[in-house]
Amino acid sequence: MSNKTASVRITCSYTGTENESASLPAKIVGCLYQAQTHGTVDVPDLATTDTEYDIPFGAVAEATLVLVENTTGQDLWLKWNSANIESHKQFLKSGGCALIAMPDLPGQYPTTAVSVTTTATQSGAGTVAYHIFGDPT
């Protein structure tokens, strides 16, 4: 049973249609969790195209908050729940990050796995940072 809350604050500033500075109201999402895991996955120099790396969930069985940051220097495919279908796979540009933040356990279709796949041969060592919160196994 989740008994802690991780809060995500999302802000967005942009240039409006008439070149004015604009911003959306800040959105705060509280994600319940009990277990957490943080770390990096190493993508070694010369790793070949289409090499898949699982993001370890550690003690988290069902995630309420997942943050993945691509610092490999190449674009990656990011796959949710091991599904190799377009609705659960997205392109993660080098330097980009992906976030799923749910205020409650996801119910029938929980996030239980995340992986990244190289799109080219890795040039120099790279990493993928991750932070995962949710209910324990």
| Total strand segments | 10
Radius of gyration: 16 Å
Please work out how many helical segments DSSP would assign: 0
Strand order of the largest sheet: 3-10-5-8
Mean pLDDT: 91
Explain this structure.
With 137 residues, the chain is an all-beta fold. It has a single domain, classed as Jelly Rolls, CATH 2.60.120. The chain is built from no helices and ten strands. The chain has a four-stranded antiparallel sheet, with no helix packed on it. Strand 1 and strand 2 form a beta hairpin. The chain is globular, with a radius of gyration of 16 Å. The model has no long low-confidence stretch (mean pLDDT 91).
Keywords:
137 residues; 10 strands
Brief description of this entry?
By secondary structure, the protein is an all-beta fold.
Topology (elements, then pairings):
Blueprint: E1 4-15, E2 21-33, E3 35-43, E4 52-55, E5 60-71, E6 76-80, E7 89-92, E8 97-101, E9 114-118, E10 126-136
Antiparallel strand pairs: 1-2, 3-10, 4-9, 5-8, 5-10, 6-7, 6-9
